[in-house]
Each structure stands twice: as structure tokens, then as C-alpha cells.
Amino acid sequence: MAALRDLQQQLESQASVVNKIQKDISKNHQVRRQYTIQHGENEMVQKELELLDEDANVYKLIGPVLVKQDLVEAKANVNKRIEYITAELRRLDGSLKSLEEQQNSKREAVMKLQQRIQAAQAGKASS
């Protein structure tokens, strides 16, 4: 009886860990989606900047004000942003892979606990 209760507590604990991992995976997907959108937007800006002549006027929106910016500086800023976003996407991919591996191992542990509980209940019912 006590062994069965312990198994059920372990099962609840493992199930809550699986739920937390699922929430983390969902959050990871959400953040990744935002970075992917930003990456696409910055690549469009980069392509637009490449089309400009060297003497073209470039403006950066800072709050409600447009501030004149050097073309070379604007290109460098966009390239740095793309590098940063790409690095973040790679980090998120690694994190997602790790979370999915944790989720799979915890699910296996939950299934084994469920089987042990069923076996214990079957043994109790037959005695």
C-alpha cells in the first residue's frame, strides 16, 4: 500500500516535470518565432542598404525623431544585428534539442512508473 502511494507520488512529480519542460519548449518556440521575424526584417533592410549609392541619405528612427546616419555605420549596425540574431537562433536550437531530450527521457520514466503502478495494482487485486 505504501509502495503504491510512493509510486503515485513519483508519477505526479515526474508528470509535473514533463509539464514544465513542455512549457519551456513552448516558450522557446515563441521566442524563436520572434527572432526569425526580426532576422527576416533585418535581411530586407540589409538588401535595401546595398542598393543605395554611397552618398545616399540614411535616417534612423530614434523614438519619434529621424536622425541622419552614415551609410557605412547603418550597414555595420544591420550586419551586427543579423549576427546577433543568428547566434541567438543557434542557441535556441541547442536549447530546444536539450529540452526535447529531457522531455523524452522524463516521458519514458513516467511510462515505466505507470507500468509499475499497474503491476502493483494487478498484484494487489489478485491477492
Question: Can you walk me through this structure?
Answer:
The protein has two helices and two strands, in the order αββα. The protein is mainly alpha-helical. It has a single domain, classed as Orthogonal Bundle (Helix Hairpins). Helix 1 runs antiparallel to helix 2. It is rod-shaped, with a radius of gyration of 26 Å.
| Mean of all residue-level pLDDT scores | 93
Hey, roughly how much beta strand do the residues contain?
5-15%
Give me the secondary-structure category: mainly alpha
Radius of gyration: 26 Å
Q: Under the CATH scheme, which class?
A: Mainly Alpha
| Shape designation | rod-shaped
Biggest sheet descriptor = 2 strands, antiparallel
Series of secondary-structure elements, N-terminal to C-terminal: HEEH
- How far is it from the N-terminal to the C-terminal residue, by CA? 13 Å
Model regions low in confidence, pLDDT < 50 over at least 5 residues: none
The number of distinct helices, counting runs of at least 4 residues, comes to: 2
How is the CATH topology named? Helix Hairpins
Percentage of residues in helical conformation: over 70%
Name the CATH architecture.
Orthogonal Bundle
Can you tag this structure with a few keywords?
127 residues, mainly alpha, Helix Hairpins, two-stranded antiparallel ribbon, 2 strands, 83% helix, rod-shaped
